[in-house]
Design brief:
eight-stranded antiparallel beta sheet; alpha+beta
Length: 160
């Protein structure tokens, strides 16, 4: 009986950690160069799952689930929007959008998202496998927002 009483604090700690990782925050490792110069291969980031409750905005960095793989990409178009890149300029519903970041050159394309779909792209457009190839992602595929780098330690901070 005394042994079980000693285990209770450890069981509670394990349960709290599992609940936090499942419903609130979890770590993720950046794999590849598709988000450079914002995120680099090998960086450890925090996925904020509860941030999805406040909605997903244009230019948020999100984790999307594609099969067994998780991808880190930037949201470019929201549901029911026409996205077009023409001469390296972004248009949403035929209106020019000023991007707050410098991206690699983006080849011309046009796509329209459906209900509950988001069009995501990597910042390093030359190497990114994103919605241009994979199609738009349903909101259910988006697992959280990436807004914090934990490692390497010289990069600790919020992601823009």
């Amino acid at each position: 009986m005394k042994f079980l009483k000693e285990l209770v604090p450890y069981i509670i700690i394990i349960l709290v950690v599992v609940l936090i990782r499942t419903f609130f925050f979890s770590p993720a490792l950046v794999s590849g160069s598709s988000m450079e110069d914002t995120l680099y291969d090998g960086e450890l980031v925090i996925v904020n799952k509860i941030a999805l409750k406040s909605g997903i905005d244009r230019f948020d960095i999100v984790i999307v689930n594609i099969g067994d793989e998780l991808l880190i990409k930037r949201v470019i178009a929201l549901p029911n929007e026409k996205i077009e890149y023409k001469n390296n300029v972004l248009y949403i519903n035929d209106e020019k959008i000023e991007t707050p970041f410098e991206f690699e050159y983006t080849d011309d394309f046009v796509h329209t998202t459906g209900d509950d779909e988001y069009f995501v792209m990597g910042d390093n457009r030359d190497v990114s496998q994103d919605s241009r190839v994979l199609g738009a992602f349903n909101v259910k595929s988006i697992k959280g927002k990436v807004n914090l780098v934990l490692f390497p330690f010289n990069k600790i901070g919020f992601v823009k």
